[in-house]
Amino acid sequence: MIQDKIRVMKTDDVTRVVAFIPPGHRHTRVLIELKSGEKLIFQQATIDGIIRAYASVALHPSRKAFELTLKRLGTRERKEGFAKWQLVESRRSEDEIMKDVMEIYGK
Questions:
Q1: Rounded distance, CA 82 to CA 6, Å?
Q2: Tens-level pLDDT at each residue, the chain (107 residues)
Q3: Which residues of 21-43 are buried (b: 16+ CB within 10 A; e: fewer)?
Q4: Is residue 63 part of a domain?
Q5: Structural domain boundaries, residue 29
Q6: Residue 5 falls inside a structural domain
Q7: Residue 22 DSSP class
Q8: CA nearest neighbour of 33 among 47, 15, 20
């Protein structure tokens, strides 16, 4: 059985954040370096999803949760040039999302 590994990242756990476009690429990446020595690189679509989810809660007067889940989209479902796999808004209610995330956050 795989044990869930949950880490809450505090500001002082992050030593550096760099947004960059690698040579020969068109899309931005974000490098996050942690005090532990770990280095995480997120592709632009992932960061876009994080920003969308964050803004959907932080800027809304009453919303408490917003969820995006990974979904494979067919050619008819996605815009030209977009990836097959995308983070899209889930159909779960805010109450369902909050119940789920509070079980994780409370561990």
A1: 31
A2: 455 788 899 999 999 999 999 999 999 999 999 999 999 999 999 999 999 999 999 999 999 999 999 999 998 888 887 889 999 999 999 999 999 999 988 86
A3: eeeeeeeebbebeeeeeeeeebe
A4: yes
A5: 11-105
A6: no
A7: -
A8: 15
87 phi and psi, to 5 degrees?
A: -85, 115
Q: Indicate whether 54 belongs to any domain.
A: yes
Q: How far is CA 89 from the centre of its chain?
A: 12
Residue in this structure with the two tokens 């999302």, named with its chain if needed: 97
- The 8-class DSSP code of residue 37 comes to S
Q: Which two tokens stand for residue 66?
A: 């917003």
Q: How many residues does the chain have?
A: 107
Residue 75, in any domain of the structure: yes
The tally of domains found in the chain comes to: 1
Q: Given phi > 0 = left and psi -120 to 50 = alpha, else beta, which region is 81?
A: left
pTM of the predicted model as reported, rounded to 2 decimal places:
0.85
